[in-house]
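Do me a favour: review this protein, sequence plus structure tokens, and tell me how the chain folds. Record follows.
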Amino acid sequence: MTYCVGLLLKAGMVLLSDTRTNAGVDNIATYRKMFVFEEPGERVITILAAGSLSVTQTTIARLQEACSDNPDADATTCIMKAPTMLQVAEIVGRTLSQVTGEVADKLTRMKQAANASLIVAGQRRGGGMRMFLIYPEGNFIEATEDTPFLQIGEHKYGKPILDRVVTPDTSLAEAQKAVLLSMDSTLRSNLSVGMPLDLAVIEEGACRVGPSRRIEAGDPDFAAMSEAWSNALRAAFRNIGI
């Protein structure tokens, strides 16, 4: 399993994913869950993936192939040519649904199931920022001002802080802190989520990924933030009367 989260704010978008994949306690590996499609200044699309690795990798590979040196690529098949982010979401959803169905057919004989979900976030020049959660069946929902964040994977542990502190007016600096603390809560509560982490920030109107980094296990800044958050929670708990 994994945990991915995306925030859609007036100032831009902040995205974070872990990299742990496991098929049992004795088969744990690291795979990137964040994928960037970018023509700087013109268009940026970031996809976060959670679920069956075979489904997500095949889906991403097909999306890449549809745009990479493909003379037949057009606005209905290539996310880098689609005129709107809504049509990008439709292409991604259609591809994910097809791959999910193909893998499910192969696994039916073994009485196993495989599915995945994706977060698609981006902006094209002249258009607004949009963020979608794509379900295995290919349908999707969109982040809004009422709910300016989307999560996939093991999301329940990291949701409370987002519910309490994130609004559309949250700054990009505060948003980075919020998603990192959301991830920290998840890391502490679920062993299927693990380091390293991939963090990306996209400023509104830039149409390119801005600050981004990989946070490795033992990162001193992340460890200090985690400890400060734990101390703050303990202090708040002690100060609340009953």
